[in-house]
Amino acid sequence: MSAAGTDRAAIFAKVRDHLATELELDPAEIDDGTHFREDLDADSLDLYELVMELEDTYGVAMSDEEASRIHTVGAAVDFVAERAA
Fold first, then answer.
1. Residue 11: closest CA among 64, 55, 70
2. Domain enclosing residue 47, as ranges
3. Is residue 59 helix, strand or coil?
4. Listed residue (32, 35, 36) closest to 48, CA to CA
5. CATH number at residue 38
6. pLDDT higher than 90, residue 41
7. Within a 13 Å sphere around the CA of 31, how many CA atoms are in the beta-carbon half?
8. Is the pLDDT of residue 52 over 70?
9. Taking the mean position of all CA atoms in its chain, how far away is CA 10?
10. Residue of 62, 26, 15, 22 whose CA lies nearest to 42
């Protein structure tokens, strides 16, 4: 099994790439502190699609309440990293 930092880095890369593709952004504009709504202008559908992608890819479940408390890219990555098998 690889180190947790490597796993987190891989999850971050997946999230960053997904957001960059969906929102047509340069991946370099996205870091741990990037806010979904304020910085990326992501709407509810964008965030829903990201949650579905993370659930499908990593086998984690995220309730609507949990999702509503995640405001930054880093928080989403941490959520997945803590729960991924």
1. 55
2. 4-83
3. coil
4. 36
5. 1.10.1200.10
6. yes
7. 3
8. yes
9. 11
10. 22
